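Lecture notes, continued. The same structure-token format from the folding unit now serves as the input rather than the output. Read the line below as a description of shape only.
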């Protein structure tokens, strides 16, 4: 049986292949996030990166912004050990916490201006998502931003429909072998609960945000980026 460290390394290597090939459009998503931070934040903002993993995209995204403090949250200590090196060039203090992102937000103390979560909020059930977004709303100041990058169903499409659309992109991922692709599919079956765009918008507005904007739809139409804020 492989050790946990071996399994972690294998999973990370597979995901890195996906990032390097830009199969999930990391470059476009984090380029968009960079632009939002440049346009809508003030110098010294506190950036909270939920489910940050090893944080390479966030580190690059924050370059040239006025970030004053970075806090990364992830449940994987091995990922956070790598993130220490990844984030070492940031022009601000950073803190890494090994914690479940829901627990972290539920027990948050201290200032925060921007909360970002990418491809992780969909692990929660609908009522859990709603509670989470409401808690985020209550934490953010008037000028704060909540940005999410999440799997999104078409209107009228169910969870299985979204998963079938994911399976249909298999020919577009040639750098990934069949075993590696199957691991993504198994993860979706076990952990992913995508919502429609209307549902993502609705939970933001119901939580108390004045605006819920869809900023980007991935070219494969599997995920979208949303911004929640006050007027």
């Amino acid at each position: 049986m492989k050790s946990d460290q071996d399994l972690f390394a294998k999973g990370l290597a597979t995901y890195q292949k996906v990032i390097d090939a830009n199969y999930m459009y990391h470059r476009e998503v984090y380029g968009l996030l960079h632009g939002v931070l440049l346009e809508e934040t003030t110098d010294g903002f506190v950036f909270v990166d939920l489910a940050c993993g090893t944080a390479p995209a966030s580190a690059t995204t924050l370059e040239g912004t006025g970030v004053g403090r970075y806090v990364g949250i992830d449940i994987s200590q091995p990922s956070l050990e790598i993130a220490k090196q990844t984030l070492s060039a940031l022009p601000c203090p950073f803190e890494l916490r090994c914690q479940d992102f829901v627990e972290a937000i539920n027990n948050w103390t201290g200032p925060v201006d921007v909360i970002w979560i990418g491809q992780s909020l969909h692990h929660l059930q609908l009522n859990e998502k709603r509670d989470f977004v409401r808690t985020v709303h209550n934490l953010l100041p008037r000028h704060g931003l909540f940005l999410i990058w999440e799997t999104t169903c078409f209107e009228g499409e169910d969870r299985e429909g979204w998963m079938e659309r994911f399976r249909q992109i298999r020919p577009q991922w040639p750098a990934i072998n069949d075993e590696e692709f199957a691991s993504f599919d198994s993860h979706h079956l076990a952990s992913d609960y995508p919502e429609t765009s209307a549902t993502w918008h609705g939970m933001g507005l119901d939580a108390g945000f004045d605006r819920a904007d869809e900023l980007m739809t991935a070219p494969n139409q599997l995920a979208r980026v949303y911004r929640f804020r006050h007027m």
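Point for the exam: The longest strand covers residues 145-153.
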